Amino acid sequence: MGLASGVMLTVAFLSLIDKALGMNAGCYTVVVGFVIGALSIMTLDAKLPHVFSFKEYGPVNERLVKTGFACKVTFHLSVI
User: Fold this and answer.
1) Which residues, 6+ apart, have CB-to-CB distance to 33 below 8 Å?
2) Do 39 and 52 contact (CB within 8 A), yes or no?
């Protein structure tokens, strides 16, 4: 999942950079916007707590997992 999310973020980032440069925003404006965004994400990552405990959610509901999987498959098939 990490690789897939990294690829999607890279594609989205490069697409937005291309559009920004195509709008005659200027290279300086694009770089400043990127730096501000990166610093914002780094600040949020440092300040927000990271909780990775699944004990607080209780046991896994098997029906909910099957419904989520069915929704995921349906969504991916509808995009094709």
Assistant:
1) 20
2) no
Cα-to-chain-centroid distance, residue 50? 17
Burial class of 53 by CB neighbour count within 10 A (0 to 12, 13 to 18, 19+): exposed
Domain count, the chain: 1
Domain with 58 in it = 2-79
Residue 30 near residue 20 (C-beta atoms within 8 A): yes
The pair of structure tokens assigned to 70 is: 């069915």
Q: What is the pLDDT along the chain (80 residues), one digit of tens a residue?
A: 677 887 888 888 888 888 888 888 788 888 888 889 889 988 988 888 776 655 666 666 778 888 888 888 888 888 76
Q: What is the pTM of this model?
A: 0.48
